[in-house]
Write a structure and sequence with these properties.
Length: 139
């Protein structure tokens, strides 16, 4: 339990300090700081994304990729997907392929799993794979 709290504090502090975009930012952009914690390790980074376009970032050290989409006409929702090298990864709660988070929240946290997608009313018991942390900042 102590290691989990320390990891969460480490990731949260890292997310607070990564808002240094690699290119000039424009009013039509937003920044996303992300952190991922798995049994294989943890990593974090940031990406500058344009509104109304799907944005993607790789977490190569963990073999993961996240995609994010925020629509300007509905800025209270960010659509988030996470993919892994292993085709059985990654699903969110309820074996869902994506989640919706509120970009205005100080920090979004989502558990993700490996296994199978939901089929009809069947929800598989997927195995915990990690936690995704997201922090948004609109310009």
């Amino acid at each position: 339990m102590g290691n989990n709290i320390l990891s969460l504090i480490t990731i949260t502090c890292a997310l607070a300090g990564v808002f240094t975009p690699s290119r000039a930012s424009f009013a039509d952009d937003y920044d996303v700081a992300f952190g991922v914690e798995t049994k294989h390790g943890q990593d974090f980074g940031s990406v500058t994304c344009p509104f109304d376009e799907v944005c993607s970032a790789g977490i190569d050290s963990l073999g993961l990729r996240i995609t994010i989409h925020v629509i300007r006409s509905d800025p209270r929702r960010a659509y988030v997907y996470i993919y892994g090298r292993d085709l059985s990864c990654c699903y969110f709660a309820g074996a869902a392929r994506s989640i919706t988070v509120d970009p205005h929240e100080p920090l979004s946290r989502a558990l993700f799993f490996s296994g199978q997608p939901a089929r009809g009313y069947l929800l598989p018991q997927n195995e915990y794979a990690g936690t995704l942390y997201l922090k948004f900042h609109a310009h």
